[in-house]
Amino acid sequence: MSKLFVRTLRDDPAAAEIPSHRFLVRAGYIRRVAPGIYSWLPLGLKVLQRVENIVREEMDAMGGQEVLLPALLPREPYEISNRWAEYGPNLFRLVDRKGADMLLGPTHEEMFTLLVKDLYSSYKDLPVILYQIQTKYRDEARPRAGILRGREFVMKDSYSFDVDDEGLDASYLKHRDAYIRIFDRLGFEYVIVKANAGAMGGSASEEFLALSENGEDTFVRSAGGYAANVEAVTVPVPDPIDFTDAPPARVVDTPDVPTIDTLVALLNERYPREDRAWQAGDTLKNVVFMTVAPDGTRAPLVIGLPGDRDVDPDRLAVAVEPSVIEPFEDEDFKRYPGLVKGYIGPVLDGAALLGEKASSGVRYLLDPRVVAGTTWATGANVDRKHVIGLVAGRDFTSDGVADVADVREGDPAPDNSGPLTLARGVEMGHIFQLGRKYAESLDLKVLDKNGKLVTVTMGSYGIGVSRAVGMIAESTCDDKGLCWPAEVAPFQVQIVATGKGGEILEAATRIAEQLDAAGVRVLLDDRKASPGVKFTDAELLGMPTSLVVGRGLADGVVELRDRKTGSKREVSVEEAVDEVLTVLDQLN
Amino acid sequence: MSKLFVRTLRDDPAAAEIPSHRFLVRAGYIRRVAPGIYSWLPLGLKVLQRVENIVREEMDAMGGQEVLLPALLPREPYEISNRWAEYGPNLFRLVDRKGADMLLGPTHEEMFTLLVKDLYSSYKDLPVILYQIQTKYRDEARPRAGILRGREFVMKDSYSFDVDDEGLDASYLKHRDAYIRIFDRLGFEYVIVKANAGAMGGSASEEFLALSENGEDTFVRSAGGYAANVEAVTVPVPDPIDFTDAPPARVVDTPDVPTIDTLVALLNERYPREDRAWQAGDTLKNVVFMTVAPDGTRAPLVIGLPGDRDVDPDRLAVAVEPSVIEPFEDEDFKRYPGLVKGYIGPVLDGAALLGEKASSGVRYLLDPRVVAGTTWATGANVDRKHVIGLVAGRDFTSDGVADVADVREGDPAPDNSGPLTLARGVEMGHIFQLGRKYAESLDLKVLDKNGKLVTVTMGSYGIGVSRAVGMIAESTCDDKGLCWPAEVAPFQVQIVATGKGGEILEAATRIAEQLDAAGVRVLLDDRKASPGVKFTDAELLGMPTSLVVGRGLADGVVELRDRKTGSKREVSVEEAVDEVLTVLDQLN
To answer: Residue A42: its chain B contacts at CB < 8 A?
Structure first.
């Protein structure tokens, strides 16, 4: 340790948001170079390499073949797939000395598609699974938590190529199983949740989320086993209601109702119902947004949902990808006079109930709960007027469904497996079935058994490797410092030599050499420092086991400490090596 | 092999300039993505990883500590060191979403200096040697030869930090020894040559050049052991000559002498010497260039050298770094009327011999051979006139020495170790003593024994790791394909199963499994292909040993082939595994 390139810090670094980030910096594992860009010092790199090797072993075991593609890439393939535009400011772009547009790869679907196209031409060549462990680049708007969300980071990305859907299902399941083995070995708690594929396109998609209070991703789960990313939760759709006997809708005056609450209060005061009082859930709230397509086209979008719900911006963002959402400003209302601020309603079927088809031409999507036969109070597309008794499917329809309302603790799971609870996590892995999107745009076809050209179907699978280092640290650290699982710890044992006698350092060195010869990764703290400093540092650095060689040596004993439990016990110096080997066996 | 992601090509790829590049592409080791940017396929990546591990082992053995710095770097440190400007168009620059200037690291002196400054503060912390094996970026004007000169490439770069010059010498020698071990293990022929540190600054500097006819670097060596990069060769400086009795110089008319040859002819015709005829080497040629400093400042530079020599543009380029050289155009002559085209001479001591101090104010450097007492015929700074009998040190001096004349086969080595021969090579490693340049500009100081702040002295050391893969291929391949040394080969043995009998593939598989169990890296060619195709592919892929399991199996024999010598011999199938193990032992 006197030679190791490390310095421990007593004070927390500025702007370190979460415990693992603070400890990784304080313990000398990583250092910040620029926002979201970090250097790996010797201790940190050892953990990173160990995590890489776990991922590599399991990818090899499931039949993946390792390759290494460049990080600096030409624009053309990403232009063809449209991601050059879709990635927006998240992509690092540059121009080379000859004026060619290039990018730093955020993920490599296009390049792998072209690589397989370059080499393969027949169904006999498939399936194939290729992977790389490689440095990726994303110009995140808000890099955070050190290596948990960086702008330069290490990722394992893999891609499967199959000739048909059954093949893709098999490749997907192979990955799912391998990921379970990998994350089990990495040792943090995780859940597999249904996910939305986002900008990647595609269909079946699951995320591996590490449970973490500090996580950026919210997910839901039920006692019955349902789990999904909040973006991917679906609302159970109620059965339609018979509306044969429903009374006709009528327009009512509703001045000064800027909110759902004031609307409900007014309805109860002026238009009370006999059976029960008006509630927020009886109103149909219509919220207007501006969508901006990748080509810059702007168009309004109205979402109709029960008045006791809000639109979840993350769920909405996923639903409109690759377009993005912007607020609908007062100026926009001027350009669309049919959209009456505070009184927006659905376009009514047949003749408009009031005035003309006021909001016609504007895309209107409905929450899945608004099924045919449900009755609502909603805006009349006229200032200071609402409609009550408006029946879905009789009086109005929509351009489609938008399942973008906020998800709440206690909401029913879509598979009837019980009420949902909300939790937070960090996305550690993502597997998805891309299908033929990239193969079609980049023309990856092979000859099938009948000599016919067919488009290949693909899967894309990622693991945040550097992020995993951060997550392991985050999920295992305590108030004293890091606390590594044995398999990824930079050293399995830290030998702490305390006291001034030369024989102490000699004995410690001898034990270290014996352990090293037995294949154990040992760090010997041979520094000239006080026992207090050494113990504090050992706890901060977080090796699973430590062995204190100190005052007890005179009585022939050394102390064995377990970092996780804090337990200590004396063992005889002769048996120290065997004891350590036994303890390590149990840890693995 | 039926599952391996590889396809061999019968035809040479377009624009593959050298044999190794052709074979690496044809054998499916690498694929081009963009100019100077390549993907590593499974076979190529295995070689790259093996080379990386050799480098890592030797760097660890000499006490280096591995770290990993980002490739995407902020501008500021490179601005302070002035390399943001000095690198010119060779640097990939980009701007992030917040408008910050960034670069892709071509080498990391600045970042390592700052890292050590961040952690260390005392002489007790030193020496320290840090290294990384990392992807580097240089926007080469002419990327060539596949992975031999790429724009994205893998490099091992290391940096030593010492408190004094003796320490730096020791760190430098440690690297030199480690490099010798590394290059010996990599198995290509190389020479260690004196080098110029170029843009890196610093003093002692050596290059490890792999011998290669296709190499871009010219170097010289003598039978007596001298070796230097052409940019670093120095001219042996002759002793000064007593000029007491030298006759005075005189101006002569020399119309129409556009070249040295015409000048010599005219001198011999009109001004013949008694002792011997005029020769080109008796004339002092003065060549003018325009230098452009990093800040854009332009200034003429005149180089005086014997008329039988030419200025070597590469040697000149190194001599003027970080300025660059541009031609001196006719317009420039107009702006500097003292520089008379075709008749430029040195500024004469004391009063000018002719007219005024015509070219005064222009920097004038002399070849080291122009020592005091040598006598020359040279331009008179006046149109159509030369001066003869002009004595260096008596009639003219210079602003300094410029050792930039071309180096020729047969020139004497500067250490008197015999005549020089010229050869070509590829730079595989470079070690140099940076000294305090970066530590000074980035303020890396530590407290010395007396509690005084001293500037740290540094060394910088690089190995082209991906380039080494190309060079090993280049130096070992033959007309049939690649031919890997055992230590870096992707597989040690290729088992070729030929013929249709199921028992052949069974026997081949059994032998492959036994070898695999013995820790041998085996590739089994189990494809349905003709023996001819398989043999050709085995030679192209270049594993050191192959084992043919085919027709002979009926007689209980298999054939053992050595890729390098082409030798073949039959061994009994029972002894095949042991025979292979014996052969591999001999190869290692």
So the answer is: 65-67
